[in-house]
Structure formats: structure tokens, C-alpha cells
Amino acid sequence: MAGLEVLYRATLGDIATSQDALVCFVHWELVRAGYGCLGAGDEPGTNEKKSEMLPADWNKSRELYTLRYQSNDETNVLLKAILVDSTVIFNMMNFKTNQVSDLIVNLTEHVDDDHLQDFGRVFKDPDNLRQMIKSSFVSPPVHTGNSKKNKPEKSANVPYEADPLRIPDRNPRSDRHPAWPDPMGPFAVGGSDLDPFGGRQGGMIFDPLRSGLPRPGFNPTSGIPGRLPPGAVPPGARFDPFGPVGRNPPGPDPDHMPPPGFDDMFM
């Protein structure tokens, strides 16, 4: 905390409340980070110069503190501190990047109101308070537009099957067997229709014996009583049924309740 004690003793006559002591602490941490105070208030004055000291009337209102700073790279920032019950809400705006940073400090946890005139006892946990200020104010404002933009890192060690956007290789390894055909192949589009029995998925011709759906328990080569005699379907031949299989097909007859005059061709 080199320099803070000197600043605190120099402004000891102005410090009358816990928030005064806290604002003095935050001010010095900004000075240590390379900021110089230009003045108090929202509007800049004439012939302003950066200073390590707090400006005149810096605590004129002990409910709202407004201080302006400039960093070493001439970035202007505006710091405001608002007293709300027993807490102080700090707000810093970087005019170059329009970045806004916030910090909320509980006065009872960090400032001893009974020892405002004793620098050695006024701050209860200065190391923790300094870390809070550094993480909220000191680190974000010093970044300028000249810094390189962070690029998203590529994900590493992603399983092959876990990436839904991955297109299989045209020459896959032996342990990968994608079902997708070569997009440059002559049968890539419509290949299932052109070669329905070539082992591809899909196709226009429906084969109930190869569809994978539950099949009725019959063998077309043995014939269908009342429809096909035995041997009408050669063994292994494709068979497209042309009617319900069995004598008592399930389900209602679509013509079991025809409308009046159903057989009248003039209706």
C-alpha cells in the first residue's frame, strides 16, 4: 500500500465518513494502475492535468461521488460511487470502449467507522479490497482497441461420432463405415431408386419381405389358398402381395356399409 498512507493523511481533514475513506482507497488503487485524476464532476474543466491527489470538492456530496480519470494511453474514464444504505456501488465507464464496470462494497466489512482518523486501523481487509478493485476496475479499463481480438479455440479431442456437423471422410479408416455414399458418385442422388436391390437404404419399390417390419407368418412359395396355387411364386423371388393375406384379414371391410344406391351407375 505504498503511497496510500501519504494520500490518506494528506486528505485526513476531508474524511468524515466511511464512504470517504473507501473512495480514497479506490482512488489510490486507480493511481497505482496508471490513472491520473483529472477532476470532479461529469463535465471536464479547462487546463486539466492528471494528478495523484484527490481534486477539490471530491466529497462535496457524500451520497454521490463523481471523479474523472485518464490512463497512460490517454483513455478517459468516469468513476461514480453511490451510497445505498451500508453499501457503496461503484460504476466506471470507459469512454474509448464504452465498457462499463461495476463494484459493490459493503462498508461495514471493509471500513472501521470508529477509526477513520487512524490509517493503521481504518481498513479491515485491505488485501481483499484491493483484489476486488483490481478484478473490477483495474484490469478491464487498461485494454485498448489495439489489443488482438480473442479467437475461439478449436475444440480438441472431440469424438468422431459426437460432432453432428462432421461429414464422413470419402476414404474412411477401417474402423469407420459411414452409411453416406460418395457425394460425387453417379448414383449419389436417386441411387436407391435406380438400384433398389443394391443394398442402399430407401427406394421407391416396397418389398414387404425386406422392409424390416413384422411379416405375416406365411410362405408365398407354398401358395395362398383361394389366390395362388403352390409353386406359383419361385423360391427367393420377389413377391408383392395384391390383397390381404389369410382368409380372415384383420380390420373392417371398407365396403361393409355402402351408401344407398351404391350399385346404381347413375348416382
From TrEMBL:
- Record keywords: Acetylation, Cytoplasm, Endoplasmic reticulum, Methylation, Phosphoprotein, Proteasome
Residue ranges annotated as compositionally biased, kind Pro residues, are 247-261
Q: Which Pfam families match?
A: PI31_Prot_C, PI31_Prot_N
Q: Can you tell which superkingdom this protein's organism belongs to?
A: Eukaryota
Its subcellular locations are: Cytoplasm; Endoplasmic reticulum
- In this chain, the stretch annotated as Disordered covers 135-181, 221-267
User: Annotated Gene Ontology MF terms?
Assistant: endopeptidase inhibitor activity; proteasome binding
**Domain PI31 proteasome regulator N-terminal, first and last residues per copy:** 14-140
The Gene Ontology biological process terms listed for this entry are: proteasome-mediated ubiquitin-dependent protein catabolic process
- Identify the GO cellular component terms for this protein: endoplasmic reticulum; proteasome complex
Q: Where is the PI31 proteasome regulator C-terminal domain?
A: 169-244
Q: Which InterPro entries does the UniProt entry name for this protein?
A: PI31-like, PI31_Prot_C, PI31_Prot_N
**Skewed-composition ranges (Basic and acidic residues):** 163-179
Describe the family membership recorded for this protein in Swiss-Prot or TrEMBL: Belongs to the proteasome inhibitor PI31 family.
Function noted in UniProt = Plays an important role in control of proteasome function. Inhibits the hydrolysis of protein and peptide substrates by the 20S proteasome. Also inhibits the activation of the proteasome by the proteasome regulatory proteins PA700 and PA28.
Q: What is this protein called?
A: Proteasome inhibitor PI31 subunit
**Taxonomic path:** Eukaryota, Metazoa, Chordata, Craniata, Vertebrata
Q: Which gene encodes it?
A: PSMF1
